[in-house]
From TrEMBL, chain A:
The gene is Piso0_003562. This is Ribosome biogenesis protein NSA2 homolog. Coiled coil: none annotated. Component of the pre-66S ribosomal particle. Interacts with NOP7 and RRP1. Interacts with RSA4 (via WD repeats). It comes from Pichia sorbitophila (strain ATCC MYA-4447 / BCRC 22081 / CBS 7064 / NBRC 10061 / NRRL Y-12695). InterPro entries: NSA2_fam (IPR039411), Ribosomal_Se8/biogenesis_NSA2 (IPR022309). GO terms for cellular component: nucleolus; preribosome. GO terms for biological process: ribosomal large subunit biogenesis; rRNA processing. The keyword rRNA processing applies. Residues 1-84 are annotated as: Disordered. Keywords: Nucleus, Ribonucleoprotein, Ribosome biogenesis, rRNA processing. Involved in the biogenesis of the 60S ribosomal subunit. May play a part in the quality control of pre-60S particles.
Automatic annotation (TrEMBL), chain B:
Residues 32-98 form the NLE domain. Keywords: Nucleus, Repeat, WD repeat. This is Piso0_005173 protein. WD repeats lie at residues 136-178, 179-220, 222-270, 271-311, 399-431, 441-482, 483-516. GO terms for biological process: ribosomal large subunit assembly. SUPFAM superfamilies: WD40 repeat-like (SSF50978). One of its GO terms (cellular component) is nucleolus.
Length: 261, 516
C-alpha cells in the first residue's frame, strides 16, 4: 500500500465508524436538497461550473430515456447501418481468410495512386566499384592476359542458359553463385513466400549488371506469384510481379526481397 | 533483362512428342449385336439388332426413334453401355461413336453382345451465355442471393446487405421493385413454385412474404426464430391442397426449422432436434423435409405425420453445409415449363399447374418404374454422401476427392448428374444415380461458391471468389465460356428456367445479367 493512503490503511485496520452506512444513506437522500440550494445560491465562476455540469447531466439523461423508449416501440425498426461487410449464409460462420483479397485490392488501390508508382522501398543504394564486382582472371599460357572477368556477386541466369565457349567467355557467372528463388515478403500482410525468380528487371548499379542478371541490394526482380492466386480485375491470374532485393545476397547466401505492391 | 516465360517443363515436352490419337474408324470394322434398354423402366426395345461397329450416336438415336415409332417428333437420347464386370455393373457413356468409346478402349470386342441403356435428353437446347448484357446498379451493398422467377425469365429477385431485396426486370435491364422492410441483411430469397409470392429471410431473424408482381409486403414479418435465417424452402406445388397456398419452411442458425402457413401467416410447426445451426433445408416431392446442420447430422422430417423426425442420418464427420434433392429443380419450377412466360403463366389455372407439376415431378423422380428420391449432402469434411433416406439410413455412396470443404451441391434438372463446388478451386461432377466420380472442372483460381444448371442439364455455370463466372459443358467436361466482368467476389448465381439468362451478384453491388 502506498504511503499516502493512510485513510484506507486506517479503515482496513479499524473498520469504519458504526453509523457510517446510515450517514451515507442520509447524505445521499439529501443530495437533491443540496443541489437545489447550490443552484439558487452559487455565484460567479462556481455557479457557471455548476450549471455546465447540471446541463450535461440532464442532456445525457434525456438521451438515455429516449433510447430506452425507442427500444420498446413495436413495428418496423430502421434498417441497420450497412458497413459493407455483408456475407452470404455459407460464409457467415467461417473466418474468411482474406489475404489474397487484401493483396489484390491493395494492388487496385495502388494503381489508382499513380503518383507514387515509381517509389520503391530502397530508393538509394551504395555504389559498388568494378573492382569489387569483378575479379580479374589471368589467362594465357604464361598468365599474362587479363581480359577475363568473374562476377563476385550472386546472379540470376535464365532457364536454359548455356555458357559461351571458354575462349570467348569474357564474363563468368559462377554457377555456385546463381540463384533461382527468392524469399519474397508481402509488406502489408507480413507473409514471406519462397518464389521463383523470373528475371532481373533493373539493377540500380549499372545497366550492364541488369543485363548480366546481377543480384545486389536494391535490384528489382520479377518473381512468379502464381501460387499466391492473385487475380486482376479482368479475372486473369496475376503471374509475374516485381520485388526489390533488400539484403546483400553475397553476404547472406540467399535473396530476400520485398514485393512492390 | 526482359521477362522470360519459363520454357515448357520436361513433362510437357514429352507429352507434346507423344503420338496423338487420331479418331479414325477403321473401314473393315465388322457388325456388332446390340440391344436397347430404357434407363428408367428397364424395358428393352426391338430385340437384338445388328449394327455397324462404328455407328455414331446420331445414327443410334435415329434407329431408336424409328423403333419406338417416334419419327415425327424425334427425341434426343444419350446412350451408355451396360458393362458387367464380374458382379459389378457400370455404365460407360457412348460419345461420338461406338468404336471410339467401347471397342477401341477394349471394353467389349466386336464378338460380344452389347446392351445399350438409353436416356432421353431435354428436347430443347440451352445455348451457353457468352456476354454480359447488363450491369445494373441499385443495391447499396453486397448482393447475397439471387433467384429467378419460376414462370418467367424476365424477373429475378436478389437480396443484399442493404436490408432490401429487389426485383429486376431483365427484359429492359432495369430495377423493377424494391422490397424494403427487413432491418438487416437479406440472406435468402425464394420464389414460391406458383410464382406469385417471394419469401425473404434475413439476418434480423425474420421471414417476410411479398407479392411477386407488385412487390408489396404480404402482412408483416414472420417472427419466431431467435437467430438469423439460413435458408427457405417452399412446399412443392403438387402437394398443396385444393384452394390453398403453398406453405414454406425456414431454417435458422438457432437450430430450428419452422413451417409457416403463407395465407394465415402463422407458424404451424417448429421442428427442433438439431443441436447446432441448420445450414440448409429442402422440401421434397414426397412430402418430406430434409435438413442438414452444423451438428454433423441430416434429419428427415415427415410432413404427413405433422413434422415427426423419421430419421437421423449420421455419417459426416464435420459440419454439413448443403443438400440437394434429385428432384429439386422440377419442384422449384412448379407447373411451368421452359416456354412459359408472364402472360401464359397467368392464363393457366391453379388446378392445371398442380396437375402439370405432378406430371413433371413423376417424370423426373421415377427410376425403374418407381419414385426414387435421392439426396446428396456436402460437408466440411471434404466429402459428400449420397442417400436414399426412404429406403435406408445408410448412404449409397461416399463421394471423396475434394481437397477442401465442399460448399455447394446440386443435382442436374434431370437428376442424372451431381455437381459439387468446393473451396479447393474446383467443381466436380458425379453420377447422380450411383455417386461415381465423372470429372473435375478446373479453371477457377479461388474458391468456387455456387453453381447453377441450365434447364437442359447440358451446361452449368459456377461463380467464384476470383470474380469470374465460368460456363462448363457437362458432356465434354470442359470450360465452355469464361465470363469475367464482376470487379469483386461473386456470391450468387442463377440460370433462368428457360435457359435464356444468367444473373449474378456479389461484393461489387452490381447485378449482372448474362446472355447469348
Amino acid at each position: 500500500m502506498p504511503q499516502n493512503e493512510y485513510i484506507e490503511q486506517h479503515i482496513k485496520k479499524h473498520g469504519r465508524r458504526l453509523d457510517h452506512e446510515e450517514r451515507k444513506r442520509k447524505r445521499e437522500a439529501r443530495e437533491g436538497h443540496r443541489v437545489a440550494k447550490d443552484a439558487q445560491n452559487l455565484k460567479g465562476w462556481r455557479a457557471k461550473q455548476f450549471a455546465k455540469k447540471r446541463y450535461s447531466e440532464k442532456a445525457s439523461m434525456k438521451k438515455k430515456i429516449k433510447a430506452h423508449q425507442e427500444s420498446k416501440v413495436k413495428g418496423d425498426p430502421t434498417p441497420k447501418e450497412d458497413n459493407g461487410e455483408a456475407l452470404p449464409t455459407y460464409l457467415l460462420d467461417r473466418d474468411v481468410n482474406n489475404s489474397a483479397k487484401a493483396i489484390s485490392s491493395s494492388i487496385k488501390q495502388k494503381r489508382l495512386e499513380k503518383a507514387d508508382k515509381f517509389s520503391v522501398p530502397l530508393p538509394k543504394v551504395k555504389g559498388i566499384s568494378e573492382e569489387e564486382m569483378f575479379k580479374v582472371i589471368k589467362t594465357g599460357k604464361s598468365k599474362s592476359k587479363s581480359w577475363k572477368r568473374m562476377i563476385t556477386k550472386h546472379t540470376f541466369v535464365g532457364e536454359g542458359f548455356t555458357r559461351r565457349p571458354v575462349k570467348m567467355e569474357r564474363i563468368i557467372r559462377p554457377s555456385a553463385l546463381r540463384q533461382k528463388k527468392a524469399n519474397v515478403t508481402h509488406p502489408e500482410l507480413g507473409v514471406t513466400v519462397f518464389l521463383p525468380i523470373l528475371g532481373v528487371k533493373k539493377n540500380p548499379q549499372s545497366p550492364m549488371y541488369t543485363q548480366l542478371g546481377v543480384l545486389t541490394k536494391g535490384t528489382i526482380i520479377e518473381v512468379n506469384v502464381s501460387e499466391l492466386g492473385l487475380v486482376t480485375a479482368g479475372g486473369k491470374v496475376v503471374w509475374g510481379k516485381y520485388a526489390q532485393v533488400t539484403n546483400e545476397p553475397d553476404r547472406d547466401g540467399c535473396v530476400n526481397a520485398v514485393l512492390l505492391v | 533483362m526482359a521477362t522470360l516465360i519459363p520454357p515448357p517443363s520436361k513433362k510437357q515436352r514429352k507429352e507434346a512428342q507423344n503420338v496423338r490419337d487420331v479418331d479414325i474408324i477403321p473401314d473393315n470394322l465388322p457388325n456388332v449385336l446390340i440391344k436397347f434398354q430404357a434407363s428408367d423402366t428397364g424395358d428393352s426395345v426391338g430385340g437384338s439388332i445388328r449394327v455397324p461397329g462404328g455407328i455414331t450416336e446420331k445414327q443410334l438415336e435415329d434407329l431408336l426413334n424409328n423403333l419406338r415409332g417416334e419419327t415425327e417428333e424425334p427425341v434426343p437420347y444419350t446412350f451408355a453401355l451396360l458393362n458387367t464386370d464380374g458382379d459389378k455393373t457400370s455404365q460407360v457413356e457412348i460419345r461420338d461413336n461406338l468404336y471410339t468409346s467401347v471397342l477401341k478402349p477394349g471394353l467389349k470386342t466386336t464378338e460380344d453382345f452389347m446392351t445399350l441403356v438409353y436416356t432421353p435428353r431435354a428436347v430443347f437446347k440451352v445455348r451457353p451465355v457468352t456476354r454480359s448484357n447488363a450491369a445494373i446498379a441499385g443495391h447499396g451493398s453486397t448482393i447475397l442471393c439471387a433467384s429467378f422467377a419460376p414462370n418467367d425469365s424476365g424477373r429475378v429477385c436478389t437480396g443484399a446487405g442493404d436490408s432490401t431485396a429487389r426485383i429486376w426486370d431483365c427484359d429492359t435491364s432495369t430495377p423493377f421493385r424494391t422490397l424494403s422492410g427487413h432491418s438487416n441483411w437479406v440472406l435468402c430469397v425464394s420464389y414460391s413454385p406458383c410464382g406469385t409470392m417471394i419469401a425473404t429471410g434475413s439476418m434480423d431473424n425474420t421471414v417476410r412474404l411479398w407479392d411477386a408482381e407488385s412487390g408489396k409486403p404480404i402482412g408483416g414479418s414472420l417472427t419466431g426464430h431467435s437467430k438469423w435465417i439460413t435458408s427457405i424452402t417452399w412446399e412443392p406445388l403438387h402437394l398443396v391442397k385444393e384452394g390453398d397456398k403453398p406453405r414454406l419452411a425456414s431454417s435458422s442458425k438457432d437450430g430450428t426449422i419452422k413451417v409457416w402457413d403463407s395465407s394465415t401467416r402463422n407458424c404451424i410447426y417448429t421442428m427442433s432436434g438439431h443441436t447446432n445451426s441448420v445450414s440448409c433445408v429442402k422440401w421434397s416431392g414426397s412430402n418430406i423435409i430434409y435438413s442438414v446442420s452444423h451438428d454433423k447430422t441430416i434429419r428427415v422430417w415427415d410432413m404427413k405425420a405433422g413434422g415427426k423426425c423419421m430419421q437421423v442420418l449420421k455419417s459426416h464427420s464435420h459440419w454439413v453445409n448443403h443438400l440437394s434433392i434429385s428432384t429439386e429443380y422440377v419442384l422449384r419450377r412448379g407447373g411451368f415449363d421452359y416456354n412459359s412466360t408472364r402472360s401464359t403463366a397467368k392464363k393457366s389455372s391453379p388446378e392445371e399447374l398442380r396437375k402439370n407439376a405432378l406430371a413433371q415431378y413423376e417424370k423426373v423422380a421415377k427410376v425403374g418404374g418407381s419414385i426414387n428420391e435421392r439426396i446428396v449432402t456436402a460437408s466440411d469434411d471434404f466429402t459428400m454422401f449420397l442417400w436414399e433416406p426412404l429406403k435406408s439410413n445408410k448412404p449409397i455412396c461416399r463421394m471423396t476427392g475434394h481437397q477442401k470443404l465442399v460448399n455447394f451441391v446440386s443435382f442436374s434438372p434431370d437428376g442424372r448428374y451431381i455437381v459439387s463446388c468446393a473451396f479447393d478451386n474446383s467443381a466436380k461432377i458425379w453420377d447422380g444415380l450411383r455417386g461415381t466420380f465423372i470429372g473435375t472442372f478446373r479453371g477457377h483460381v479461388a474458391p468456387v461458391y455456387q453453381c447453377a444448371w441450365s434447364a437442359d442439364s447440358r451446361l452449368l455455370v459456377t461463380c467464384s471468389k476470383d470474380t469470374t463466372l465460368k460456363v462448363w459443358d457437362v458432356r465434354t467436361r470442359k470450360l465452355s465460356v469464361d465470363l469475367p466482368g464482376h470487379s469483386d467476389e461473386v456470391y450468387a448465381v442463377d440460370w433462368s428456367l428457360d435457359g435464356k439468362r444468367v444473373a449474378s451478384g456479389g461484393k461489387d453491388k452490381m447485378l449482372r445479367l448474362w446472355s447469348r
